[in-house]
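Re: the 220-residue chain
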Amino acid sequence: MYKRYLFTDLVTGEKRGSFHGANDEWRIIVHWYEKLKDYFPIEEMKSKEHMESLLEDYPELYHKDEGHNHVMMYVEAEDFVFIDYLYVSNESRGQGLGHQLLEKLKRKNKPIILEVEPVQYKDSDTKKRLKFYRREGFQHAKSIGYSRRSLATKQVNSLEILYWAPNEEGEELVYEALVKTYNKIHTYKDVDFYGESYEPVDKVVQLNDQENVRNIFDEL
């Protein structure tokens, strides 16, 4: 009887397997979507069909930056960049890969915007993630509220908005960018892919009174 072994190549990050006692060897290369799906909560994930359609239908707008140890999906518009997903493998964390990916986007000299989970004390990754973005010079868009109902879980998912502003762009630009991204990217063909529509943008993205809103970085 042959024995099968599965391991991760620490150099390439690929999943590999072999049959003990057999001349045959097989390799599994993990698809970029599977990496994202295994890392991000289900309520934050787009379907594979949704993302592949964005890549195919909007190649000038929606982009994939992929390597053995990372996946970054982002929107590049004329006046902003929106990071849809940023994944770095466990093997590569703490080695500067996330910083390198952000530096690549910063060289475009456009505001960079992203959604992030609030601090959850039962999940240490949320705090580490916020500390990382603070070191990278991101600010909290305190005036913007963002709550989206997941079509997968039917639960409302509240996220915070962070942004990097190379030319001191304000939160009004961030708000307008989020509205464009929601209408063009997040809800693209939603009925076709999910069988129902997402909520209208005015129920998801809202402007608040900055004076009464906390700065999420104060919780670190």
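The radius of gyration is 19 Å.
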